[in-house]
Amino acid sequence: MESIKNRRTIRKYQSKDIPAELLNSLLEESFRASTMGNMQLYSVVVTRDQEMKVKLAPAHFNQPMVTSAPVVLTFCADFNRFSKWCRQRKAEPGYDNPISFLNAATDALLVTQNFCTLAEENGLGICYLGTTIYNPDQIVKVLELPELVMPVATITVGYPDECPEQPDRLPLTGIVHEETYHDYTPEMIDEIYAYKESLPENKHFVEINHTETLAQIFTDIRYKKSDNELMSETLRRTLKEQGFEK
Amino acid sequence: MESIKNRRTIRKYQSKDIPAELLNSLLEESFRASTMGNMQLYSVVVTRDQEMKVKLAPAHFNQPMVTSAPVVLTFCADFNRFSKWCRQRKAEPGYDNPISFLNAATDALLVTQNFCTLAEENGLGICYLGTTIYNPDQIVKVLELPELVMPVATITVGYPDECPEQPDRLPLTGIVHEETYHDYTPEMIDEIYAYKESLPENKHFVEINHTETLAQIFTDIRYKKSDNELMSETLRRTLKEQGFEK
User: Fold this and answer.
1) What residue ranges carry the coiled-coil annotation (chains A, B) (predicted)?
2) Among A31, A109, A175, beta carbon nearest to B169
3) What percent of chain A has pLDDT over 90?
4) Which of A38, A118, B61, B207 has the highest Cβ tally under 10 A?
């Protein structure tokens, strides 16, 4: 599994297209992931059409990968198909609630990661767009998602046209806990984040952003409380509109 | 990637232990998954102690894998470590809200699936326990999870002592949509679920459960509306208690 070990996010792609046959076979294999009661509570919308990419881009804050990648995949939590089947079989579905959203989102995210691994193993590069859950309402509209369908992940895919440095990761001991969660002391926090803070690119980041610490770039610029609260509202509203908060 | 294609859930394990070195190296590799802004918003609690497994079991409806697997892993959405770092660096974190939970849960679930792939690639077998989000309050207590930490996935791991049949999957065309979501007609639903309904084990299931249709086993026995509503309440309450609904 060298591809997982050596993976890096790819944001620049060759103009070369991805054959439908390859894409479908990777998707089909990805559906082997564990799924709640074998219900397969997900759908995938494939975007290849340039016009559709342009329509999707604003929901992803116009990140250039959306319009430059040959393929954009939107993975959705989907209780619509299953509920329709139930109704057609004299069974009354009860999946219009938060736990069902989380079940379906889990199913969808396991498949998303499976797809990414398979894509990378086959020479493709991917970029995971975290923006999907920030503007789900816009994506619902563009992709015409019905009730009980909610977008949870977007991946841009293509043949890599770059090979960026691998980003740093926190030390294993900062993430893994034995038997119970051992909460972090100030000393442990210093230790866990020391390497990240020592990196020249992060020091440069602090300099050009005129902040005092690296953490302030996250709290004051990239992932602000006020933005998070606004996006939480959009998330709540969209979950309600999509029927997961009955 | 034959291991993804051929994968099956393993519920029976050899008594053979998993060396800590192997487990740690698989976990470390799994942390290569995409993560929101490279924040790594997850923690993993490793359970090897038999007493701890016994304590965890009720939260997972006493499924026997919890006490019989050599290792149980609980993957948690974690904004605690990151927020502590922020505070220690004169930065005010704003991650006590639903979107931050979903960001962290996404990070954790991508890592979970990555770990499963790596484990299976290395000859281990896994079982994904969907029960984690049904009784998160119990897991929080047993594993002593602090505020801004929420369990989202549990995996039992060990060397396989069985090789069950691969379960069926819905046809690709029932899951993948081109450009926009094409909602299902009754004919499409019949077609998509025809193979599943034709399987002898599913027909047998209907017979022994005395239901009229396979779908009724899901709606009336396995995933009931009343249970989903109760579990949604527990989910909401636990998210609040863990500080993600400020």
Assistant:
1) none
2) A31
3) 98
4) A118
Residues A103, A168: Cα–Cα separation, whole Å: 31
Task: Give just the sign of the alpha carbon dihedral A121, B106, B149, A230.
Answer: positive
Structure confidence at residue B3 (pLDDT) = 84
Q: Check CB contact of B44 with chain A, cutoff 8 Å.
A: yes
Is the reported ipTM for this assembly greater than 0.90?
yes
CB atoms within 10 A of CB A201: 9
- What DSSP character marks residue A217? I
- How far is residue A137's CA from residue B96's CA, in Å, rounded to a whole number? 22
Statement: residue B1 has pLDDT above 80: no
Report d(CA A148, CA A171) in Å as an integer: 39
Q: What is the mean pLDDT of residues A82-94?
A: 98
A171, A195 Cβ separation under 8 angstroms: yes
Burial annotation B111-134 (CB, 10 A radius, 16+ → b, else e):
bbbbbbbbbbbeebbbbbbbbbbb
Burial B90-109 (b: 16+ CB within 10 A, else e): ebebbbbbbbbbbbbbbbbb
Top residue of A80, A177, A242 to mutate, by most chain B CBs within 10 Å, is A177
Asked if residues B219 and A92 have their Cβ atoms less than 8 Å apart, the reply is yes
CA distance B56 to B66: 7
pLDDT digits (tens, 9 = 90+) for B9-68: 999 999 999 999 999 999 999 999 999 999 999 999 999 999 999 999 999 999 999 999
Cα distance from B99 to chain A (closest Cα, Å)? 5
Mean pLDDT in chain A? 97
Q: Give me the residues of A, 111-140, that contact B with CB < 8 A.
A: 112-114, 116-118, 121, 126, 128, 130, 133-134
pLDDT in tens, A99-144: 999 999 999 999 999 999 999 999 999 999 999 999 999 999 999 9
Interface test with B, best of A76, A176, A213 (most B CBs within 10 A): A176
Fold of A2-165: NADH Oxidase (3.40.109)
